[in-house]
Design a protein that fits this description.
166 residues; mainly alpha; two-stranded antiparallel ribbon; 2 strands; binds zinc ion; single chain
Length: 166
């Protein structure tokens, strides 16, 4: 029998209805977190995928913001800023990790952003389903754009925070 599915309460993806671990503050259904772990493992297993991994983490983090806490406030702020830099400012995804490290030094400036109800039409599932490098990289890019657009109400604030990195 096929595993029953549910919709992740945070990103809306259709995921297996399973028990399992979830991240400490990136709140998701266990089946959604399982997809993310498998996508991450794929990206680490092959040098062709590694360059998009930061974008994968960014998109997943902002689609699963969780509840307000110092960690989640910082997570949403830096991952949205990274998406902004890559999607709108053409920063290379592999350079985004350094950008996030620099921006994290300004965490005192961040505050909680109320997450949008709809967090984007593309989720980790579309990436998980791809079967080759090219399709995977394209799906991650589309996912990142979708996640960034979903937070449009906060774009001006995020751009201001991104500007803290000189
Ligand atoms: Zn999810």
């Amino acid at each position: 029998m096929p595993t029953p599915t549910i919709h992740c309460f945070s990103c809306g993806a259709e995921v297996p209805d399973i028990e399992g671990p979830v991240h400490r503050y990136l709140a998701s259904a266990p089946g959604c977190w399982a997809y993310f772990t498998e996508v991450s493992a794929r990206e680490y297993s092959d040098i062709n995928y590694v360059r998009c991994h930061q974008l994968t983490v960014d998109a997943y983090a902002v689609q699963h913001p969780g509840q307000p806490s110092p960690q989640s406030i910082q997570s949403v702020a830096v991952h949205l800023a990274s998406l902004y830099m890559v999607v709108e400012r053409n920063l290379q995804a592999r350079e985004a990790t350094g950008f996030i490290q620099q921006l994290s030094q300004h965490k005192a400036a961040f505050h909680w952003l109320e997450p949008p109800e709809n967090k984007g039409s593309i989720t980790v599932v579309q990436v998980w389903k791809t079967e080759n490098v090219q399709a995977h990289l394209q799906a991650v890019r589309a996912w990142a754009e979708s996640a960034w657009l979903a937070w449009a109400a906060h774009h001006e604030q995020v751009k201001e925070w991104a500007g803290l990195v000189g």
